[in-house]
Amino acid sequence: MKRIIYFTLLGLASLQATAQEENPTMKGFIKGVKKNFPITRTFDLQYDQFGPANYDSKLFGQKQEKGRFDSHNRLKLAVNLPLYKTKSQRFVVTNTYVYKYESYGFGAIYNFNSNATHTRSTQDFHYFAGALSATYVSSLFSKPIIYNATIIADGNQENIQRIKGFATASLVLKRTANTTITAGLLVIADPSSIVPVAPLFTYNHQFLDSKWEIDVILPKSILLRRGLLENGRISFGTEFDSENFYLNLKKPQLNGIYEVNSLELKSGVTYEYHLDRKIIGTFKAGINNVLSTRVTEKGERTDKYIYENKQDAQAYFRLGLSYNPF
Nearest Cα to 132, choosing from 168, 164, 160, 169? Predict the structure, then answer.
């Protein structure tokens, strides 16, 4: 579900740029995506560092342990390559590859079953995902509309673990010099998804006689933005994110392949700066609230979890570098 939400919101964000063109084409779609989501640029590298946080966990509904994450860092690399586009540039097929490395360092851990405190070595995880996406830009009721169909395969260093997909249709409801409103519908082909269909919505407004704008992409983000320095942009607000990876476990109670899903709410400031025409640097910092971390058997719905982890809010920062040769 996480990757489905991610790729869908890319399309919604792009509508804000597409809607402002008199004759919407794929050029507007690509412009909007790459402007709002660094990870969709041709090459993007992100490094996240999270501060320490206490946590409590439950296994099969029973208290398991409480402890502390002394360190947590995340490295993510994305590559996006165009495969095909028509002469009119209204239809395009793209290929996306994502690699992620997660590392957790632990402090003292108290186990409720043994009533003992112990330590745990650093845990490292690898995640891979690939997506094939077809997008068509058209018009409906004289308004821009974007159709998208995407198939996603993801897994870990052991194997490809799951294949899923989705389709969307997103329409511009309002377009003025200062305001753009879009709405869409998402249909999900994934047995682990709690809902098969979901609504989508964006709102962008440029304040009159001001450099500030408000940018709302639900359920992804609510941001206030403005240009800062000649080649930079600063943003303040809150962004919803979700992360996942797979576990291959061989234990008496847990034997098989499991998926970890984490929902995160990041609030703070982001600054992006064009180092030149093709290279963009990003710095992000603030507070990260982990709403929930759950482990399910592979392919099971996330509300049928067997393990749940809750942790305190933590400070974080991100360093990013994007390269867009095309």
Answer: 164
Cα 156 from chain centre: 18
- Judge whether 172 and 14 are in contact, CB under 8 Å: no
- Looking at the structure of the chain, the number of domains it has is 1
Say how far apart CA 128 and CA 39 lie, in whole Å.
Answer: 14
What six digits make up the tokens of 195? 């809902």
* Alpha-carbon span 209 to 106, nearest angstrom: 51
- Cα separation, 176 vs 220, whole angstroms: 23
Q: Which residue has the tokens 């409801």?
A: 173
Minimum mean pLDDT range among 21-35, 145-159, 269-283: 21-35
- Of 197, 170, 223, 171, the closest CA to residue 4 belongs to 197
Helix (H, G, I), strand (E, B), or coil: what is residue 174?
strand
Residue 18 pLDDT grade (very low, low, confident, very high; cuts 50, 70, 90): very low
Mean pLDDT across the stretch 125-137? 91
Distance CA 28, CA 24 (A): 6
Per-residue pLDDT at 192: 80
Residue 38 domain boundaries: 2-323
Q: Please provide the DSSP assignment of 268-314 as one string.
A: EEEEEEESSSSEEEEEEEEEEEEEEEEEEETTS-TTS-SEEEEE--E
If we measure between CA atoms, which residue out of 40, 240, 7, 38 comes closest to residue 146?
7
Q: Which residue has the tokens 């402090």?
A: 107
Cα separation, 188 vs 185, whole angstroms: 10
